[in-house]
Design a protein that fits this description.
about 140 residues; four-stranded mixed beta sheet; 4 strands
Length: about 140
């Protein structure tokens, strides 16, 4: 059995992110040491839902750009986790970076996948390492022009 990435859009994907690069996300998760079997649910949503999830699960007010929820596969029917991305935060951040919304949405899904794999940014060193890995995977799908 191979890793499956299920993409459940609640809002429309940016046109240049179709088809969603699920094979690249699956490869990233394998490289990062997640089991080769299972599923990851990717949800593209809005600030309203991310605000609610951020409050309920992190105790923080306001929206955030990405949330990742890892699950033990033995207790979740083989689901490794969920990644939620706010299209509104992605659009805002893309504008700040001068990049396409699709590239920023991909960046946020990569960021969430790295969290599912156990990476974090609690220290300056771990934050730098996570950003390096993240940007390498972003450029793999969306090379700089």
């Amino acid at each position: 059995m191979t890793l499956r990435v299920h993409f459940h859009p609640l809002v429309a994907l940016p046109p240049d992110l179709e088809p969603f690069p699920a094979p690249a996300l699956a490869e990233l998760l394998k490289v990062e040491g997640l089991a080769a079997a299972g599923a990851v649910h990717c949800v593209l949503t809005d600030d309203v839902q991310l605000t609610d999830l951020n409050r309920r699960f992190r105790g923080r007010a306001g929206p955030t750009d990405v949330l990742a929820f890892p699950y033990p596969p033995s207790e979740s029917g083989g689901v490794l986790g969920d990644i939620y991305v706010s299209i509104e935060r992605a659009a805002s951040q893309a504008g700040e970076r001068g990049e396409s919304v699709a590239r920023e949405v991909w960046r946020l899904f990569v960021h969430g996948a790295l969290h599912l794999a156990g990476r974090g940014h609690e220290t300056p060193a771990s934050g730098r390492r996570m950003r390096e890995i993240q940007e390498a995977w972003v450029s793999r799908v969306y090379p700089r022009r």
